[in-house]
Amino acid sequence: MWFDEAVVYQIYPLGLCGAPEGNDGVPQSRILRILDWVEHIKKLGADTVLFNPVFESDRHGYDTRDYFRLDVRLGTNEDFAKVCKALHDAGLRVMLDGVFNHVGRGFWAFRDVQEKKWDSPYKDWFHIDFGGNTDRNDGFWYEAWEGHNELVKLNLSHPDVVRHQFDAIRTWVEQFDIDGLRLDVAYCLPQHYLRQLREFTQTLKPDFVLMGETLHGDYKQWMSGEMCHSVTNYECYKGLWSSFNSMNLFEIAHSLARQFGPEDWTLYKGAHLLAFLDNHDVTRIASQLTDPKHLPLAYALMFGMPGVPAVYYGSEWGEKGSKQAGSDAVLRPEIALPQWNELTDWISLLTKAHRESNALCYGSYRNVVLTNRQIIFERKTDSERVLVAINADAQPYTAHFDAGCGLAQELLTGKTHDFGGGSELPPYSAQYWKMER
Fold first, then answer.
1. Which of 182, 178, 216 shows the shortest CA–CA distance to 99?
2. Which residues fall within 8 angstroms of residue 60, CB to CB, at 6 or more apart?
3. What does the alpha-carbon distance between residue 201 and residue 214 come to, in Å, rounded to a whole number?
4. I need a labelling partner for 372 at 20 to 30 A (CA). Which of 53, 74, 115, 275 fits?
5. Cα–Cα distance between 199 and 31 in angstroms, integer?
6. What are φ and ψ of residue 322, in 5° steps?
7. Which residues make Cβ contacts (< 8 Å) with residue 152, sequence separation at least 6?
8. Are strands 230-231 and 209-212 parallel, antiparallel or unpaired?
């Protein structure tokens, strides 16, 4: 499947395009700003654009009002169709954020229940108790997402709710030709719903991708041949930065071996989980790392490990932003035009190496050399073998191990390397060695 070889570029449109924090109801075609980013994304080497919520909502996009209409703060459906066409014309695929577990209080069906109470034909679309109340004083209690009463949980066992959402997805394919969905809080979606969704979307496009947002637990609860194709790899997300901050690369090596290693008990061997260093919900990697010199190394590790690598808009040139700041705008800022620097150059090399390497897309995983400050691991298929080497130390390191051959090509520089006398890793370095077979 195409997603197995993808490099994802994630955009939070309400932020990047500078939309007001609350829905002011004033139409403005801000989404057309994305047209200025198309060539940048292509030059970076990404081939898939993931848009966080774009449809009409109360505030941040995850509080949907209308699944069928673009948020007026971003423009019209016709505006977004232009953006999607430009991306597709550039050879990029498009994925949307599917927010199906809950809606906002401004969702049209919930507004009907507020007005008509038990006489509303939509009362069973939600989990409602007319004998209770909430802090919003609607005169009834309703189940919300994880206690956030601005997010009203939908009854995904109700056939009319499912039909309404599936009609919306069909419209998104017809109007925008989307290629897949990120499923918000997929860990909250019932398995029967995920199976229905997978079966339905396959009728729209046989290679339509479902990638679920999951945090912890066994990812196989939501990922299988009948449910999500992929899920977010939050376990490795944490290790990708904390291993560098604590100078303990054993942490990320343990997670990778646990998930993808050669043992029979390995959890997700052959799976293509979404790998990421940051996103719209967490502190940006440039703010998360203690030592800025580890930033390119963290990207090299992420692009070299098993999975589908994702880059969050702005982070490719080192944009900073801390979740502790308490403002959505810090993590989801307005950025008029993309930038390019040495880090962006480096990531473009990594994307090229990843996309062009069978081993980096599909290869097995095995730890070869591991210390607190250095890691070398092997990615291997029947046709190719690549070693990924990271030295997080300020000092050079000489790695002695049986490379299995004498010569290798360095994928990021094209240089040939002789492994006859071991290999010296320069300080703060990352290398991808394609080994002779």
1. 182
2. 14, 21, 53, 328
3. 20
4. 275
5. 31
6. -110, 135
7. 102, 103, 104, 105, 107, 110, 126, 142, 143, 144, 145
8. parallel
Confidence band, pLDDT 50/70/90 cuts, at residue 422: low
Q: Name the pairing type of β-strands 385-391 and 374-380.
A: antiparallel
d(CA 137, CA 119): 18
- For residues 228 and 1, what is the distance between their CA atoms, to the nearest angstrom? 13
Confidence of residue 324 (pLDDT cuts 50, 70, 90): confident
Q: Are 45 and 355 in contact (CB under 8 A)?
A: yes
Pick the closest to residue 175 from 75, 81, 51, 82 (CA basis): 81
Residue 88 sits at φ, ψ, to 5 deg, of -65, -40
Q: Which residues lie across from 435 on neighbouring strands?
A: 408
What does the pLDDT average to over 315-325? 94
DSSP string, 6-35: --EEEE-HHHHTT--SS-------GGGGGG
pLDDT in tens, 44-102: 999 999 999 999 999 999 999 999 999 999 999 999 999 999 999 999 999 999 999 99
> H or E stretch including 81?
helix 77-89
Handedness of CA 196, 105, 63, 147 (dihedral sign): negative
- Provide the token pair at 57: 């909502």
Q: Could you tell me the maximum CA-CA distance found in the chain, to the nearest angstrom? A: 81
Indicate the DSSP class of residue 139: S
Beta pairing partners, 228: 223
The residue with tokens 């507004």 is 111
Crossing angle of helices 342-356/295-304, nearest 10°? 10
User: Which amino acid is present at 327?
Assistant: S
Q: Are 321 and 283 in contact (CB under 8 A)?
A: yes
Report the alpha-carbon distance of residue 19 to residue 33 in Å, rounded: 11
Distances (CA, A) of 419 to 380, 407, 430: 18, 6, 16
Degrees to nearest 5, angle at CA 282 with 279 and 287:
100
pLDDT tens string 95-126: 999 999 999 999 999 999 999 999 999 999 99
